[in-house]
Amino acid sequence: MSIVEASAESVTEAARLLRDGRLVAFPTETVYGLGGDATDEHAVAAIFAAKGRPQFNPLISHVLGPGEARAFVEWNDTADRLAQRFWPGPLTFVLPRTKGSAIALLTTAGLDTVAIRAPSHPVAQALIRAAGRPIAAPSANRSGAVSPTEAAHVHESLGDRVPLILDGGPCLVGVESTVLDLSGNRATLLRPGGATREAIEAVIGPISVSDALPAGDSARKSPGQLASHYAPSRPVRLDATFVGADEGLLAFGPHPLPGAMLTYNLSPTGDLGEAAANLFARMRALDRPGIGRIAVMPIPETGLGLAINDRLRRAAADDPTRPHG
Ligand code: TXA
Ligand code: MG
């Protein structure tokens, strides 16, 4: 394994690895991705293996823009209007696969739809361009664990499972892309993320929200919406109004609760964008020996707060199969 600063040379080397069917971790504006050639069943199988990810959970294919997307999915007007506003950026569309789509069946877990997005991070764009093919990439962490927003997090989580990690600095958005299903009659939010519901509705009007949100138990349209996810190894307690002596505190706003063993404030000014960017790194920092539990102060359920609270609820969901360490 090696962490290499992103540069023209290292991106070229990474693209060569991808074309050889190998995996590369790379920065996007949301989180670091574990990339493989989305058209190569073997490469995609290697992604699932490296993450320990169930193969029924499909991956997002990353492209440069609508021009490339049209080769793989049945593009439509709604996608077009949203892409004009949000691409490149943290919005993923679920669209029907085209006949003869080159996206590997394993990438979509055998579904007849494809999740596709154009990331805005310049290193991600350079890598897709140099590879000359769509890149399948889930977050670059072991399945179920906290997503990586820095190159070092990828190494902590995946170690030698990934031959090359391109370091492009900390991710500016900090939570994953919004996943929006555009394959049916009505646009449906499958996963809240970096593009806010409010901003999406400003472009296309009211959207539906999947039953599976937030962390519900009904049959899930987005197979990745497992209740427990994004989980640190310590228990997480939400909406804290006091702090126990053995707890670390994830604070929000100008009045952090007193009494925690260790406190990180997601945003002292109460800025949700800043809080999203800090979320996963601070969660990791509190997930350490000596701390019995992570208490989290309430976060408003608007704008990026939807994505932040979704991740926090999943981190708090009790699941005996939760990975530790
Ligand atoms: O920001 C992001 O989206 C990051 C970066 C690397 O791009 N990627 C990411 O991928 O978060 P992943 O694999 O952790 O999450 C993909 C989500 C999952 O919830 C999955 O179930 C859903 O997208 N998904 C993928 N394909 C789908 C499909 N055809 N239909 C419904 N949901 C799909
Ligand atoms: Mg993930």
- CATH top level label of the largest domain: Alpha Beta
What ions, cofactors and ligands are bound? threonylcarbamoyladenylate, magnesium ion
Number of helical stretches of at least 4 residues:
9
- Beta-strand segment tally: 15
Distance between the termini: 20 Å
Low-confidence parts lasting 5 or more residues at pLDDT below 50?
Answer: 214-224
Tell the overall outline: globular
The amount of helix comes to 25-40%
User: What is the helix/strand order?
Assistant: EHEEHEHHEEHEHEEEHEEEEHEH
CATH fold type of the largest domain: DHBP synthase
In this structure, how is the largest beta sheet organized?
A: 11 strands, mixed
Kindly estimate the percentage of residues that lie in beta strands according to DSSP. 15-25%
Widest beta sheet: strand line-up? 1-8-2-3-7-4-6-5-9-10-11
- What structural category do the secondary elements indicate? alpha/beta
**What is the annotated CATH architecture of the largest domain?**
Alpha-Beta Complex
| Integer-rounded radius of gyration | 19 Å
Please indicate the count of domains.
2
